[in-house]
Amino acid sequence: MLEEKTPSWGIEPVPDRFRVLGLADSFLLWGNLGVSLLVLVAAAFLVPALSLQDALIAIVIGSLIGNLMLGGAGLIGADARVPGMVLLRAPLGQRGSYGPTALNVAQSVGWATFELIIIAAAAAALSDELFGFEAKSLWTVVFGAVAAGLAFMGPVGVVRRVIRKYAVWIVLGSLVYLTWWSLSETSLETLWDRPAEGGMSIWLGIDLVVAITVSWTPLVADYTRFSRDRRSAFFGAGLGYFVAGTWMFVLGAFLVLARGLSDPVEVPAAVAAAGLAAALALLAVTVDETDEAFANVYSTAVSLQNLAPNVPQRLLVAAVSVLATTGALAIELRNYETFLLLLGSFFVPLFGVLLADWLLAGARYTAEDVFRSPAFRAGLIAAWILGFLLYHWLHVPPLGPSWWVDLVERIGQPDWEYGASLPSFVAAFCLGGLAVLLERRGAPARLRLGS
After folding, report:
1. How far apart are CA 97 and CA 218, in angstroms?
2. Distance CA 257, CA 267 (A)
3. For 22-37, how does the pLDDT look when each residue is reduced to its tens digit (9 = 90+)?
4. Fewer CB within 10 Å, N side or C side of the chain?
C-alpha cells in the first residue's frame, strides 16, 4: 500500500505520487493534533488570573494569529515538499539551518516528554478511579511504545488508518460530552461574572496562546509535504488546529473555573473522578493524545535527518522514543508556561524571516533554493536573532535563566503592554526582507557567507 512506502521518506522533495493528503485529511490530522490535554491544562495559566471574558479574547486572538502562521508555514512546506528544518536551508543557508534544527529537536523532545507525562497522569487517574491502582510508570512506557509505533507508521498511515477511520468520531463525541459536563453544575452566567484574580494581562495571554500554536510551525512542513496542494496544506493545518485548539482552551477554562482547579495537573484527575461517562470521555481524549506524542517523536527524527541525512529514520524514531519515555519517567510536570513562551520567542521571528524570504523568492521555493543555498545567509540569520531579542526586550516579566533575566532588566524594558509576538514577527519579517533586497543589490559577499 502507498502509505506503507512513505513513513521513512527523508529530506528529498516528496514526489507527486506520494502527495496524497487532501484538505479533509489535513484538517483531520491537525484537528486531532489540536485535541491535546496539554492545551486543556494550559488554560489554568489563563484563568482565574484573567476573567472568562478576557481569557476568551486572548484565546481567540492568539489562536487566529498563531494559526495564520501555522497555515502559512504549512503552505510553504507543501510548496517545497521538504521537511521543516530542511526548508530553513533556503532562508538561513545550509549550515545556518543547523541552529533552528537543534532548537526544534530540543522543543520536540520536550513536547513529547510533556505529552507522555500528561497522558500517563490521565491514564493513572483513570486506572486509580476504575481499578484502584495508578501504575503511572507502566502507562508511561505503554504510551511511549504506542507513540513510537505511530511514528513508524508515518503521517499518511496515521491519517488513513487511524484518524480518519476511528479517532475523529470517538474524540468528537468525547469533547461534546466533556464540554457539557464542565458546565453541568454551574451556569455560564456565573462564570462570566467571576472577577479576575490578577497576575496576567490579556496580551500576555495572547502570547501564551500564540506560543502553543506557533510551536508547531517548525514541524508543520514535515506533514504538509505530503499534501496534494498548497490550499489543502494552508486551510487543513490552520483551520483544523484553530477549531480544535480553541475548543480545548475554552473547555480548559470552563473546567478550571467551574471545578475550582488551581494546578494544571489536577485537571485530568478531576475529570476521572466525575463518574464513568466522564472517565470514558477522558480515556478517549487520553488515547487520542498519543498522536501529539507521535508527531513530536516523528518530527524529531525527521529534523535530525537535516543534520545526518544518512541515518535511518526508523533508528532515529526508536532512539527519540526511548529518550522521551525516559524523560517522562524522571520529570514531574508542574509549570511549563515559561517553556511555552520561550518557544514563542524563537519561532515567531523565525517564521517572519521564512515568510519574507519566500515571498521575495516569488512565493515559491524550488529545489535549488533549498539544496543549493550558501552555507550561511548572515543577513537573514541576523534578522531572526534581532526579532528574538526584541521579543525578550518587550516581554514583561523577562523570560529565561536568571543570568538572562538579570541582563534584560539591567538594559531596561520599555513601558509596553501589548505583547511581544506581533512586534517580533513584524521586525523579523521587515529586517529579513531588507536583507534579501540588499543581497540582490550586490552585497552577497557580506550577507551570504560561504557562497
Report:
1. 11
2. 11
3. 999 999 999 989 988 7
4. N
Rounded distance between C-alpha atoms, residue 291 and residue 162, angstroms: 10
User: 398 is written with which cell numbers?
Assistant: 523577562
- Provide the 3-class DSSP secondary structure of residue 396: coil
d(CA 238, CA 70): 6
Q: Write down the residue that cell numbers 535563566 correspond to.
A: 401
The x, y and z cell numbers of residue 306, run together, are 537535516
DSSP label at residue 21: B
Q: How do residues 67-125 score in pLDDT, each as one tens digit?
A: 999 999 999 999 999 999 999 999 999 999 999 999 999 889 988 888 898 888 878 87
Name the pTM for this structure: 0.88
Whether 227 and 19 have beta carbons less than 8 Å apart is answered as yes
Please tell me the predicted confidence (pLDDT) of residue 451.
Answer: 44
Whether the pLDDT of residue 450 is over 60: the answer is no
How far is residue 129's CA from residue 274's CA, in Å, rounded to a whole number?
9
Residues 435, 386: Cα–Cα separation, whole Å: 12
The grid cell for 72 is 502559512
Instruction: Report d(CA 366, CA 305) in Å as an integer.
Output: 20
Q: Is the peptide bond before 48 cis (omega within 30 degrees of 0)?
A: yes
Tell me the mean pLDDT in the region 382-390: 96
The CA distance from 123 to 121, in Å, is: 6
Grid coordinates in use for 58? 486572548
Encoded amino acid at 62, one letter:
G
Cell match 505529552: residue?
Answer: 115
